[in-house]
Write a structure and sequence with these properties.
The chain is mainly β and 71 residues long. It is built from no helices and nine strands. The chain has a four-stranded antiparallel β-sheet, with no helix packed on it. A three-stranded antiparallel β-sheet has the order 1-5-4, with no helix packed on it. Strands 6-9 form a two-stranded antiparallel ribbon. Strand 7 and strand 8 form a beta hairpin. 10% of the residues are buried.
Amino acid sequence: GGDLIPVAGGNLVGAAVLLDGNKVAGRDVEDTCLRFVAPPHNAGPVSVAVETVGGRAYADVGFTYEQIAKS
């Protein structure tokens, strides 16, 4: 977690991002782009969706959390 992730689209003001169905607070929200900070999560792929007043859209490519090796 902790990465700032951009999402591009349209009519994104007021949109919510969902990772594996859990809402994540957006920041730097503009009409065509919003960014969110990925919360902590176990390693592996997660689904990414954006929910607006017009409905919910799923990303063609989700997001994958990677395990960081501790040294």
